[in-house]
Amino acid sequence: MQQFSYTIKDELGIHARPAGLLVKQASPFKSTIAVDTGTKKADAKKIMALMGAGVKQGMTVTVSAEGPDEDEAIEALKKFFEEAL
Amino acid sequence: MGLFDAFKKKGMEIGSPLKGKCVSIKEVSDPTFSEEILGKGVAVIPEDGKVCAPADGVITTMFPTGHAVGMTVSGGAELLVHVGLDTVALKGDGFTIIAKEGQKVKKGELLMEVDLEKVKAAGYDVITPVIICNSDEYAEIKGLTDKDVNAGDTVIEIQK
Description:
Chain A has 85 residues and is of the alpha+beta class. Chain A has three helices and four strands, in the order βαββαβα. The termini of chain A are far apart. Chain B has one domain (2-159): Glucose Permease (Domain IIA) (Distorted Sandwich), CATH 2.70.70. An eight-stranded antiparallel β-sheet of chain B has the order 9-5-6-7-11-3-2-13, with no helix packed on it. Chain B has a three-stranded antiparallel β-sheet with strand order 1-14-12. In chain B, a hairpin with a 4-residue loop joins strand 6 and strand 7. The chains are: A alpha+beta (85), B mainly beta (160).
């Protein structure tokens, strides 16, 4: 399993737009990808779960990928978070 | 009535959450919705601020800011009703949450109330996308657009 921690910079947190884009980023990978807030763990391929996790600015989340392409997944996700959130 | 019943066995009908005009999702100026990034659906230009359950089901996500709600309909469809565009920025101002996460609801039950005038005065578009988030699981999602609707009038027909 690969993971990284990230503190959300975006003022609005993970709302509809970045959640939709994150799902698009995560879906093509075979690995299981999750975003853990500490209180809620959301499947990054499920839009509802992500939006409902209530990720806000200032929160530190742990993004994990587990599976055959976890290395590529984590790299892509790190880049996505830095650019979009 | 026979045909209607046959359809109901195979598919799902999603009602409008609001009274207003149902239009194509492509008319929404936010690409997150118009490009179907979150899934297929329609949009309703609301006339009044009472947001009602589009079908029987369970509230899976009540956004803390009250501007959007996610629910799983009895037939399995995952629905997102997002009142207005970029309204997350209002941080709840103008929105009253009525239903709770985890609550079982019947079609037509009040979920939230929106002060449309307040939201519009703050400069936000109140058009409300109604999206089937798990669109990929269905063979056909048909929007019944370009018509005036009351809350509960069918706006989306889903075929498995």
